[in-house]
Protein backbone atom coordinates (compact mmCIF):
# COMPACT_ATOMS: atom_id res chain seq x y z
CA UNK A 1 0.00 0.00 0.00
CA UNK A 2 2.79 2.39 0.96
CA UNK A 3 4.64 1.67 -2.29
CA UNK A 4 1.46 2.35 -4.25
CA UNK A 5 0.97 5.68 -2.50
CA UNK A 6 4.52 6.73 -3.26
CA UNK A 7 4.10 5.76 -6.90
CA UNK A 8 0.89 7.78 -7.18
CA UNK A 9 2.57 10.82 -5.64
CA UNK A 10 5.57 10.47 -7.91
CA UNK A 11 3.42 10.19 -11.03
CA UNK A 12 1.47 13.28 -10.01
CA UNK A 13 4.71 15.15 -9.47
CA UNK A 14 5.98 14.12 -12.89
CA UNK A 15 2.83 15.28 -14.64
CA UNK A 16 2.39 18.56 -12.82
CA UNK A 17 5.88 19.38 -11.67
CA UNK A 18 4.76 19.13 -8.04
CA UNK A 19 1.82 17.80 -6.11
CA UNK A 20 -1.39 19.70 -6.63
CA UNK A 21 -4.82 20.26 -5.20
CA UNK A 22 -7.52 18.51 -7.20
CA UNK A 23 -9.76 21.55 -6.95
CA UNK A 24 -8.36 24.64 -5.23
CA UNK A 25 -11.51 26.61 -6.08
CA UNK A 26 -13.96 24.36 -4.26
CA UNK A 27 -16.06 26.39 -1.83
CA UNK A 28 -13.63 29.32 -1.75
CA UNK A 29 -14.95 32.85 -2.44
CA UNK A 30 -16.54 33.77 -5.77
CA UNK A 31 -17.92 37.03 -7.07
CA UNK A 32 -19.32 38.27 -10.37
CA UNK A 33 -20.17 41.49 -12.17
CA UNK A 34 -23.88 41.30 -11.27
CA UNK A 35 -26.56 38.85 -10.14
CA UNK A 36 -29.29 37.74 -12.56
CA UNK A 37 -31.63 36.37 -9.87
CA UNK A 38 -31.59 34.38 -6.65
CA UNK A 39 -30.61 31.17 -8.47
CA UNK A 40 -27.48 32.62 -10.04
CA UNK A 41 -25.14 33.25 -7.12
CA UNK A 42 -21.45 33.37 -8.07
CA UNK A 43 -20.60 30.69 -5.51
CA UNK A 44 -22.83 28.20 -7.35
CA UNK A 45 -19.93 27.76 -9.79
CA UNK A 46 -17.67 26.44 -7.00
CA UNK A 47 -20.13 24.29 -5.04
CA UNK A 48 -18.76 20.98 -6.31
CA UNK A 49 -21.95 20.27 -8.26
CA UNK A 50 -21.89 20.10 -12.07
CA UNK A 51 -25.65 20.10 -12.54
CA UNK A 52 -26.03 22.16 -15.68
CA UNK A 53 -29.71 23.11 -15.65
CA UNK A 54 -30.00 26.66 -14.36
CA UNK A 55 -33.15 25.86 -12.40
CA UNK A 56 -31.14 23.37 -10.32
CA UNK A 57 -29.55 26.35 -8.56
CA UNK A 58 -25.95 25.26 -9.14
CA UNK A 59 -24.88 27.74 -11.84
CA UNK A 60 -23.77 31.36 -11.60
CA UNK A 61 -25.55 33.94 -13.78
CA UNK A 62 -24.96 37.64 -14.37
CA UNK A 63 -27.15 40.32 -15.85
CA UNK A 64 -26.43 41.28 -19.49
CA UNK A 65 -23.46 43.44 -18.50
CA UNK A 66 -21.20 45.27 -20.94
CA UNK A 67 -18.31 42.96 -19.99
CA UNK A 68 -19.62 40.32 -17.60
CA UNK A 69 -17.11 38.57 -15.37
CA UNK A 70 -16.90 35.91 -12.70
CA UNK A 71 -13.96 35.45 -10.33
CA UNK A 72 -12.86 33.05 -7.63
CA UNK A 73 -10.49 34.10 -4.87
CA UNK A 74 -8.30 31.11 -4.01
CA UNK A 75 -7.30 33.04 -0.84
CA UNK A 76 -3.61 32.28 -1.41
CA UNK A 77 -1.27 32.42 -4.38
CA UNK A 78 -1.06 29.18 -6.34
CA UNK A 79 0.47 27.79 -9.49
CA UNK A 80 -2.56 26.98 -11.66
CA UNK A 81 -2.24 24.01 -13.97
CA UNK A 82 -5.76 23.30 -15.20
CA UNK A 83 -9.06 25.17 -15.24
CA UNK A 84 -12.13 23.05 -15.96
CA UNK A 85 -15.44 24.67 -16.83
CA UNK A 86 -18.90 23.13 -17.06
CA UNK A 87 -21.30 24.94 -19.37
CA UNK A 88 -25.04 25.38 -19.01
CA UNK A 89 -27.19 22.73 -20.68
CA UNK A 90 -30.78 23.99 -20.77
CA UNK A 91 -30.25 27.21 -22.70
CA UNK A 92 -27.86 29.55 -24.36
CA UNK A 93 -24.73 27.41 -24.46
CA UNK A 94 -23.18 29.80 -26.98
CA UNK A 95 -22.88 32.57 -24.41
CA UNK A 96 -19.62 31.03 -23.16
CA UNK A 97 -18.01 31.40 -26.61
CA UNK A 98 -15.11 33.84 -26.51
CA UNK A 99 -14.87 33.97 -22.73
CA UNK A 100 -11.35 34.46 -21.40
CA UNK A 101 -9.75 32.69 -18.44
CA UNK A 102 -7.43 35.06 -16.60
CA UNK A 103 -5.13 34.30 -13.67
CA UNK A 104 -3.11 36.62 -11.47
CA UNK A 105 -2.86 38.64 -8.28
CA UNK A 106 -4.29 41.94 -9.51
CA UNK A 107 -7.82 43.21 -9.00
CA UNK A 108 -7.37 46.03 -11.52
CA UNK A 109 -10.53 46.02 -13.64
CA UNK A 110 -11.83 43.33 -11.29
CA UNK A 111 -8.94 41.04 -12.22
CA UNK A 112 -9.77 41.15 -15.89
CA UNK A 113 -6.35 42.54 -16.81
CA UNK A 114 -4.52 39.58 -15.31
CA UNK A 115 -2.57 37.38 -17.74
CA UNK A 116 -4.76 35.27 -19.99
CA UNK A 117 -4.60 31.49 -19.84
CA UNK A 118 -7.09 30.65 -22.58
CA UNK A 119 -9.97 31.80 -24.74
CA UNK A 120 -12.96 29.45 -24.73
CA UNK A 121 -13.99 28.76 -28.30
CA UNK A 122 -17.09 26.81 -27.30
CA UNK A 123 -18.31 24.16 -24.84
CA UNK A 124 -21.18 21.82 -25.69
CA UNK A 125 -24.48 22.14 -23.80
CA UNK A 126 -23.84 20.74 -20.33
CA UNK A 127 -20.31 19.86 -21.40
CA UNK A 128 -17.12 20.17 -19.42
CA UNK A 129 -13.85 21.43 -20.94
CA UNK A 130 -10.40 21.66 -19.43
CA UNK A 131 -7.85 24.35 -20.24
CA UNK A 132 -4.11 24.06 -19.53
CA UNK A 133 -2.59 27.05 -17.75
CA UNK A 134 0.96 25.66 -17.34
CA UNK A 135 1.50 26.75 -13.76
CA UNK A 136 0.48 30.40 -14.14
CA UNK A 137 0.74 32.15 -10.77
CA UNK A 138 -2.17 33.82 -9.08
CA UNK A 139 -4.63 34.16 -6.26
CA UNK A 140 -7.52 35.02 -8.56
CA UNK A 141 -8.99 33.02 -11.43
CA UNK A 142 -11.43 34.98 -13.57
CA UNK A 143 -13.70 34.23 -16.48
CA UNK A 144 -14.54 37.37 -18.43
CA UNK A 145 -16.64 37.80 -21.53
CA UNK A 146 -15.29 40.77 -23.55
CA UNK A 147 -18.66 41.76 -25.00
CA UNK A 148 -22.15 42.64 -23.75
CA UNK A 149 -23.94 39.42 -22.79
CA UNK A 150 -24.94 37.21 -19.88
CA UNK A 151 -22.29 35.01 -18.29
CA UNK A 152 -23.37 31.75 -16.67
CA UNK A 153 -21.01 29.06 -15.32
CA UNK A 154 -22.24 25.81 -13.81
CA UNK A 155 -18.90 24.75 -12.33
CA UNK A 156 -15.32 25.99 -12.37
CA UNK A 157 -12.59 23.68 -11.06
CA UNK A 158 -9.01 24.80 -10.56
CA UNK A 159 -6.21 22.26 -10.41
CA UNK A 160 -3.37 24.09 -8.70
CA UNK A 161 -0.35 23.75 -6.46
CA UNK A 162 -0.78 24.02 -2.72
CA UNK A 163 -0.35 27.56 -1.37
CA UNK A 164 2.93 29.10 -2.44
CA UNK A 165 4.54 30.30 0.75
CA UNK A 166 6.64 33.43 0.59
CA UNK A 167 4.95 34.86 -2.48
CA UNK A 168 3.36 38.10 -1.32
CA UNK A 169 0.36 39.70 -2.96
CA UNK A 170 1.34 43.27 -3.86
CA UNK A 171 -0.49 45.82 -1.74
CA UNK A 172 -1.31 47.89 -4.80
CA UNK A 173 -3.16 44.92 -6.22
CA UNK A 174 -5.45 44.47 -3.24
CA UNK A 175 -9.03 45.75 -3.38
CA UNK A 176 -9.60 49.16 -1.79
CA UNK A 177 -11.24 47.74 1.31
CA UNK A 178 -8.17 45.60 2.00
CA UNK A 179 -5.58 48.39 1.72
CA UNK A 180 -6.11 49.91 5.16
CA UNK A 181 -5.72 46.53 6.75
CA UNK A 182 -2.55 45.80 4.85
CA UNK A 183 -1.10 49.23 5.57
CA UNK A 184 -1.80 48.90 9.25
CA UNK A 185 -0.14 45.53 9.21
CA UNK A 186 2.95 47.04 7.63
CA UNK A 187 3.14 49.91 10.13
CA UNK A 188 3.27 47.53 13.10
CA1 LIG B 1 -22.22 24.16 -9.61
UniProtKB/TrEMBL annotation:
<feature type="domain" description="Fucolectin tachylectin-4 pentraxin-1">
    <location>
        <begin position="21"/>
        <end position="163"/>
    </location>
</feature>
<keyword id="KW-0732">Signal</keyword>
<feature type="signal peptide">
    <location>
        <begin position="1"/>
        <end position="19"/>
    </location>
</feature>
<dbReference type="InterPro" id="IPR008979">
    <property type="entry name" value="Galactose-bd-like_sf"/>
</dbReference>
<keyword id="KW-0479">Metal-binding</keyword>
<keyword id="KW-1015">Disulfide bond</keyword>
<dbReference type="GO" id="GO:0010185">
    <property type="term" value="P:regulation of cellular defense response"/>
</dbReference>
<keyword id="KW-0430">Lectin</keyword>
<protein>
    <submittedName>
        <fullName>Uncharacterized LOC108923696</fullName>
    </submittedName>
</protein>
<dbReference type="InterPro" id="IPR051941">
    <property type="entry name" value="BG_Antigen-Binding_Lectin"/>
</dbReference>
<comment type="similarity">
    <text>Belongs to the fucolectin family.</text>
</comment>
<dbReference type="InterPro" id="IPR006585">
    <property type="entry name" value="FTP1"/>
</dbReference>
<comment type="function">
    <text>Acts as a defensive agent. Recognizes blood group fucosylated oligosaccharides including A, B, H and Lewis B-type antigens. Does not recognize Lewis A antigen and has low affinity for monovalent haptens.</text>
</comment>
<dbReference type="GO" id="GO:0046872">
    <property type="term" value="F:metal ion binding"/>
</dbReference>
<dbReference type="GO" id="GO:0042806">
    <property type="term" value="F:fucose binding"/>
</dbReference>
<keyword id="KW-0106">Calcium</keyword>
<dbReference type="GO" id="GO:0001868">
    <property type="term" value="P:regulation of complement activation, lectin pathway"/>
</dbReference>
<comment type="subunit">
    <text>Homotrimer.</text>
</comment>
<dbReference type="Pfam" id="PF22633">
    <property type="entry name" value="F5_F8_type_C_2"/>
</dbReference>
Amino acid sequence: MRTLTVLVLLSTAVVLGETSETNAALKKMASQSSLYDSLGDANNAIDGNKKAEYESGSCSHTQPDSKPWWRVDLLHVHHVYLVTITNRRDCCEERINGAEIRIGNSLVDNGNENPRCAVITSISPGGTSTFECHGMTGRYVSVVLPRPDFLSLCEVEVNASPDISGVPVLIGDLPANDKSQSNSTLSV
